[in-house]
């Protein structure tokens, strides 16, 4: 699977470990920055680029990393078609995929040990969308909002298939 990843300075070391871990597991990792450690860098540009890449790259997932993951999640969610979830446990990572068909996970590098962080990321990647009608319906409502308010075209994977993998597809017309 292709996985897009981004971080600021606070997630920079974790990003290197995550890239190595995912590559060893056979995933293709695309790094959207930061590419060098800069204690004064800002996360929005990296996270926005990562989110845009996930939406444009059907079947991929994204990971955004920072100190807490909060700002990174907010930034990624500004991209139409991104459903970024802040995960702080194995359960929240799994539920993000099962119930929300999240296509980006945010994680705080200062919040977890390396082993915990890798476990959360692995749980997110491994969990499929449930495809349950109630979950697909809710995701479709969000896609409808994007189209209505932002004038965005329906995004790949907005309902179940496509950018986030698994489950039955749902278009805004459904």
TrEMBL record:
<comment type="pathway">
    <text>Carbohydrate degradation; pentose phosphate pathway; D-ribose 5-phosphate from D-ribulose 5-phosphate (non-oxidative stage): step 1/1.</text>
</comment>
<comment type="subunit">
    <text>Homodimer.</text>
</comment>
<dbReference type="GO" id="GO:0004751">
    <property type="term" value="F:ribose-5-phosphate isomerase activity"/>
</dbReference>
<feature type="compositionally biased region" description="Gly residues">
    <location>
        <begin position="157"/>
        <end position="174"/>
    </location>
</feature>
<feature type="region of interest" description="Disordered">
    <location>
        <begin position="153"/>
        <end position="174"/>
    </location>
</feature>
<comment type="similarity">
    <text>Belongs to the LacAB/RpiB family.</text>
</comment>
<dbReference type="InterPro" id="IPR036569">
    <property type="entry name" value="RpiB_LacA_LacB_sf"/>
</dbReference>
<dbReference type="InterPro" id="IPR011860">
    <property type="entry name" value="Rib-5-P_Isoase_Actino"/>
</dbReference>
<dbReference type="InterPro" id="IPR003500">
    <property type="entry name" value="RpiB_LacA_LacB"/>
</dbReference>
<dbReference type="Pfam" id="PF02502">
    <property type="entry name" value="LacAB_rpiB"/>
</dbReference>
<keyword id="KW-0413">Isomerase</keyword>
<protein>
    <recommendedName>
        <fullName>Ribose-5-phosphate isomerase B</fullName>
        <ecNumber>5.3.1.6</ecNumber>
    </recommendedName>
</protein>
């Amino acid at each position: 699977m292709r996985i897009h990843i981004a971080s600021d300075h606070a997630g920079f070391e974790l990003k290197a470990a995550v890239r190595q871990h995912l590559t060893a597991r056979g995933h293709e990792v695309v790094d959207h920055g930061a590419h060098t450690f800069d204690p004064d860098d800002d996360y929005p540009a990296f996270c926005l680029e990562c989110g845009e890449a996930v939406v444009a790259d059907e079947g991929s997932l994204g990971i955004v990393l920072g100190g807490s993951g909060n700002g990174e999640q907010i930034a990624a969610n500004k991209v139409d078609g991104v459903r970024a979830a802040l995960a702080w446990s194995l359960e929240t990572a799994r539920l993000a995929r099962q119930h929300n068909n999240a296509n980006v996970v945010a994680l705080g590098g200062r919040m977890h040990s390396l082993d915990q962080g890798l476990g959360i990321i692995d749980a997110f990647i491994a969990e499929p969308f449930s495809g349950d009608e109630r979950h697909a319906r809710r995701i479709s409502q969000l896609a409808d909002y994007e189209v209505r308010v932002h004038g965005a075209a329906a995004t790949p994977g907005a309902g179940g298939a496509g950018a986030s993998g698994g489950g039955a597809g749902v278009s805004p017309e459904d």
